[in-house]
Amino acid sequence: MVQGDFIYNFTFSGLWKRMTVFSRLYDEAEGWDRFSVEVAVPETAPVDRDALRKDFEDHVRKHAICQNLELVGTYVTHRAYPVFRRGQAPGVAQDRALIESLGICIAGRQGKFAYLSSAEATLQARHVAERVLRDQPARRTV
Fold first, then answer.
1. Mean per-residue pLDDT, 120-125
2. What pLDDT is attached to residue 56?
3. Cα–Cα distance between 58 and 67 in angstroms, integer?
């Protein structure tokens, strides 16, 4: 497989957009790579998992990104990349306030609709995690 923790498809072919190689991120030496692939499908389009899998496999083989693939599972996240229209900001702010009032910390670029660099987003997420850990009482496991 091509080296890298995150591999992006910037070509005009292939429907997939990002591959995240978890086996490298978590330093798991199993002799093979475990990764997830994101494919953005228009909301009104039918989701044909077999066709999307075939498109991905054909594309990565053609470009020598990886080979000997085995599909372990699939999951569809509807509305993973929401787009809001003009005039919806007050409603979005109200929904975010409700979520935060329930004790849920909204973090990251998509959660806060703040499109920052990956480094800045990581730093903000780390600060949120530190705050959550600091505010939680110590837990013992038996």
1. 78
2. 95
3. 10
